[in-house]
Amino acid sequence: MKLVSTLALGAAMAFGMTTHTQAQDGIPGPDEDPHIWLEEARSDAALDWVRAENNRTMAHMAQDPRYDELQAEALAILDAEDRIPYVSIRKDGLYNFWQDKQNPKGLLRKTTLESYQGDDIEWETILDVDALAAAEGKEWVYKGSTCLPPDQRLCMIALSDGGEDATILREFDMATKQFVEGGFVIEEKSQGGVQWLDENTLLVGRDFGGDTITESEYPFTTRLWKRGTPLAAAEEIFRGEPGDVWAGAGLVRDNKGVVHARTANRGISFHESLNYVWHNGEWLELDMPKKASIGGIIDGHLTFSTDVDWAVGDQVFPADALIAVDLEEWKRDPNGAKKTLVWAPGDRQTKQGGGATANSAYMSILDNVVGKVLKIDFEDGQWVTSEVALPDNATLGVQTASSETDQIMFTSTDFLSPSTLWYSDGSGDPQVLKTSPEYFDATGMEVEQFEATSKDGTKVPYFLVKPEGMEMDGTTPALLYGYGGFQISQLPSYRSLTGKMWLEKGGAFILANLRGGGEFGPGWHQTAMRENKQRTWDDFIAVGEDAVKRGITNPGQLGIQGGSQGGLLVGTAFTQRPDLFDAAIVAIPLFDMLRFHLIGRGASWVGEYGDPRIPEQREWIEGYSPYQKIVDGVEYPAPFLWASTADDRTHPAHARKGAAKLKELGQDYWYYEDMTGGHSGGVDNTQRAKLQALQIVYLMQRLMDDNESE
Q1: Which of 564, 604, 625, 644 is catalytic?
Q2: Which DSSP symbol is given to 608?
Q3: Residues 229-266: pLDDT tens digits?
Q4: What's the domain range around 609?
């Protein structure tokens, strides 16, 4: 039995930015927005502005006597050689990508299971990214590989110059440790990806020039590329529509590498797709909900996952269910094959991910934000699930699994216990394989879970991590973190940097489980999107109010932090309730929501937020867009905005414009832009440590230093 994920090449990300400078459909243009020139990522004027802001911020933060110590603490943790080297199990060994002080850009390396089970692992270097970058004069960032199953010897290596999502692709031989001479190469950077059909054929979804990318700047065509032929001459096998978010073709294959079907999908919004299968010489649209997706193969069955109730005849499969059809029956009659229920969520349960060995499939779930892992088997004509023996009250996941054997590894983590890696060969319960060292002193610290009541009465859970000796008297500096979007869950985990740099110094940490996330399944997300997105912001504010009410902290010592969608969250919070917070870290954010569809790849997120070009939907967004909500006469909590020049996802324009508007109004603020990192900021550990130190110094100055700030 095997669970095999299919590749939706159309879901590969796109590159680039289109800057629109004309006012249209009520969207602000240069006459209404004096900072629109900051949307040009690398113009001389914009970069001069960035350098001036960086210099100002560094001159202030780096002179703080705590800065050097904090940066050193962060770097020591990030470079620690005793941290767990997580691996993926392949036929020829265990593979790991590793970055440290000696290898800042990283090593792709492998070892044996026998060596990995010991304390002194012997590694064999496969690809030295630092050496490659030095030889080619590039700031290469390793972005992963796509390999030909089942041997996974031939791989397409993805490399990014400076950390942006756009990559080049080169064929690499894992056995010879060399790029293949005369092999498949895509040197023009772009979004998109590839999938191996066989040793001499790739499915390619890229920007081929002309009319081949969507408004969201994702590919919407797929080509069949034969070895030894030019990519430009490759046959187009699938084409979506320019109005799609993305579109592309992929494969359904089993653990032996056998391809059973060609599939395709068109992302008609970020959360909705039309799915197809190549059947009888044409693309047949599958009769399935737009918020459902094809999964993989389990014991001769093809699986599907759905985010909405799925009615099939007199059956109704509930949202978040795992559904299966007999693979051979489905290949004969894709829309008529009988569907059966594999698993359905109970109250406050949701599935999170999974993996599979040669003979069993595994699925991680959340049960009231507590992790479990289920083993799934098809026995005697029915689906059987059993719980894997792993720690209670922890966040659990499948780390890696072998497609050749029953070997599998799991992870467990919580706020105060170092992360643990578990191993099983299928013959018994998982056993501890490796444990992360303790990177901060958790003596006396404890975790509690509370509920806040949001504006509409909804109960919103949150976790509090308390430093040793904390009294609930409202005098503790507290950092509130949230995300609340795209059905992404925020879960307890061992946050070594937060623990060392914040909790050890006497700060409290709060993690909010907001609507818009996925902590309680698709419904938790769908109830707070588009016209209801304000509910996410209300939930976050409610958690902040509840923390004050319970005596965890007070508004003068409450800071908030979030990145990307979470940066938008923080922006809405400090503009809607500036009185409730005294620090706000707005990281790699969305911020100008009236122009978000025109900046970076923002058009792809219309499904989450709405479309500002449509008057009714623009009205929803105008109600909270932080950039427009920064107004004269209001005192804001001196936010720290940071971004990355190379971020081709949310784009640095959002953070830049927020800072520029605050400056225009004479408000206190700080701004920093990493000029090489991508969407996550920092391409190596030194840069990441610097970003961490800047943010913690800012928090300490705002929340710990007698609540005084510049």
Answers
A1: 564
A2: H
A3: 999 999 999 999 999 999 999 999 998 999 999 999 99
A4: 441-704
